[in-house]
Amino acid sequence: QVQLVESGGDLVQPGGSLRLSCTASGLLMEDYAISWFHRAPGKEREGVSCISTVNDTYYVDSVKGRFTISRDIAKHAVYLQMSSLKFEDTAVYFCAVLPQSCWALNRGGWVEPSGGYWGQGTQVTVST
Question: How far is 110 from 72, CA to CA, in rounded Å?
């Protein structure tokens, strides 16, 4: 069975940095595009970033230049390095294997597709 688990969420000051991890079991991560989504309080879950099977990376406009997505196949993990954090980055962050390519997610405006596999989420709070 497929299992995705996020970790690394924390309380951080504006301008600070944080690295989130997504570990996977039940699948070979190199065979799948992996996405990060987040859900802010009172808002819809929305896409943040995606890394393709050939390690092309994609980001929603609001995090470009601040966040970096990467893979470590040996550790069965995908990371989201977050820098220059803002209050509006406060959210629960989820990783997912979705039935859609990174290119399509980006082209379609980061709309969450039906299905796929999701982790339980990790809380990121940006506050003074």
Answer: 24
One-letter amino acid for residue 7 of the chain: S
Concatenated DSSP letters for the chain?
--EEEEE---EE-TT--EEEEEEEESS-GGGS-EEEEEE-TTS-EEEEEEE-TT--EEE-GGGTTTEEEEEEGGGTEEEEEE-S--GGG-EEEEEEE-SS-HHHHHHTTSPPPS--EE---EEEEE--
**Are 32 and 53 a contacting pair, CB within 8 Å?**
yes
Mind listing the pLDDT tens digit for each residue in 41-83?
999 999 999 999 999 999 999 999 999 999 998 898 999 999 9
Q: pLDDT tens for residues 18-41?
A: 999 999 999 988 999 999 999 999
